[in-house]
Automatic annotation (TrEMBL):
It is an enzyme of class 1 (oxidoreductase). It comes from the Archaea. Residues 5-304 form the FAD-binding domain. This is Digeranylgeranylglycerophospholipid reductase. It comes from Halolamina pelagica.
Length: 412
């Protein structure tokens, strides 16, 4: 089977589906290839806490139908303290969200082919001109987009983006009921998204409770394979063991039970990306390493990268004589750095420093945040160096030295 489109997109996650939505709405012939079967798409093991903020909901027209709960606050916890910031948000039902994206892409005119496992690009004169999938089946297009996540078979073969995975973050999440959302020993988590920094529970990472209504919540943790994980990790414990340890020791879960079939897993890689495009090609979404600290809104970033890719494709294909050369496709690189992930190096710095800090520093951080202006945390998450400096203390010198050693070790 061989067909031709303006754009072929591999991967029907938030980035790929959003790219297809935008391109189809502009009248382009676009096909979305998804390895999963349509029946039951997406698998329940699919990742993500799916917490987001109003800016994402409004920008992409996300309907209320896919929202599990609207939240009022973001809560940060350390081993002994907490900080509460008013920040409206939404916890999405991720499977229904992905289903809506695909359905809307189809409604706008995109073709969606399920059971289509992408294998490698089809090359002509050293340039990708199509995609081979399901063994020997082929589809051709003027522009190819890889939105397949960390697997990234097209980006890897083309050498696009630095896919040498240096620091992998892995996570697991359960949906649960019977949780004491307003426990007297902790902050009230009613209609809140909570992130906890505690190496005893998540060495080199963080854990979370996202309230989804009544006594239910999404509960999970992730960690980065960094120096803190090596220092604080418990020998022989898997990611599931850490989550179970938290469930067994936190009184909020004393009467909690897991909802059957509601388990989500995922991974990401914490590093700055290299190139993002080449002739006729772009790598988007999770195919690009994540660089966001704390609640980096991975879904929002994926959607933004899909929109940036659609904008780039439109600019390249609109002229009477389309130009999909590497230099023309590099518009996507510029949009990624300016619109999707601005100040990426500063934000990566914050991510790495945050997870290398000891538990005692997390307690001090909560105290510092409670004494600073409310916008400080948002500024830090956006990569504002001045806001970061305001949270540093003289006692952080050993932490900065630790960070420098790890950076030096990575560069060798």
């Amino acid at each position: 089977m061989s067909e031709r489109f303006d754009v072929v997109i591999a991967g029907a996650g938030p980035a790929g589906a959003q790219c297809a939505r935008d391109l189809a709405q502009r009248g382009y012939e676009v096909v979305l290839l998804e390895m999963e079967s349509e029946d039951g798409f997406p698998r329940q093991s699919n990742k993500s806490t799916a917490g987001t903020f109003p800016s994402m909901m409004a920008a992409f027209g996300v309907p209320d139908d896919v929202v599990m709960n609207y939240t009022d606050d973001v809560v940060l916890e350390s081993p002994n303290h907490h900080y509460v910031q008013n920040q409206p948000g939404a916890v999405l039902e991720f499977a229904e969200f992905k289903q809506w994206l695909v359905a809307d892409a189809r409604k706008k005119g995109a073709e969606v082919w399920f059971d289509a496992r992408v294998a490698r690009p089809i090359m002509d004169d050293g340039k990708p001109v199509g995609v081979r999938y399901n063994g020997d089946e082929e589809v051709y297009a003027d522009i190819i987009v890889d939105a397949t996540g960390p697997a990234a078979p097209l980006a890897k073969e083309l050498g696009v983006s630095d896919l040498e995975r240096k620091k992998q973050a892995i996570g697991v999440e359960y949906e649960m009921e019977g949780i004491e959302i307003d426990h007297p020993e902790f902050a009230d988590l009613t209609d809140s998204m909570m992130l906890r920094l505690d190496h005893d529970l998540a060495p080199g990472g963080y854990s979370w409770i996202f309230h989804t209504g009544d006594d239910q919540a999404k509960v999970g943790l992730c960690y980065i394979q960094n120096d803190s994980h090596r220092q604080h990790g418990k020998e022989g414990m898997s990611i599931d063991d850490y989550l179970q340890y938290w469930l067994d020791t936190d009184p909020r879960f004393e009467n909690a039970e897991r909802l059957e079939g509601k388990v989500h897993r995922g991974s990401a890689h914490i590093q700055t990306p290299g190139d993002l495009s080449t002739d006729n090609f772009m790598a988007i979404g999770d195919t690009v390493p994540t660089i966001d600290p704390l609640w980096g809104e991975g879904i929002h970033k994926g959607m933004q990268s899909g929109r940036a890719a659609a904008t780039t494709a439109d600019r390249c294909l609109t002229p009477e004589e389309p130009d999909t050369s590497a230099s023309a496709m590099a518009v996507y690189n510029k949009l990624w750095h300016s619109e999707v992930a601005p100040r990426m190096r500063e934000r990566l710095l914050m991510t790495e420093l945050l997870y290398l800090a000891p538990n005692s520093r997390y307690d001090k951080l909560m105290a510092d945040l409670n004494e600073t202006e409310e916008e400080t945390l948002a500024k830090v998450n956006a990569g504002n160096l001045g806001a970061m400096r305001n949270l540093l203390r003289l006692s952080d010198v050993p932490l900065l030295a630790k960070f420098a050693r790890e950076r030096f070790s990575d560069s060798r």
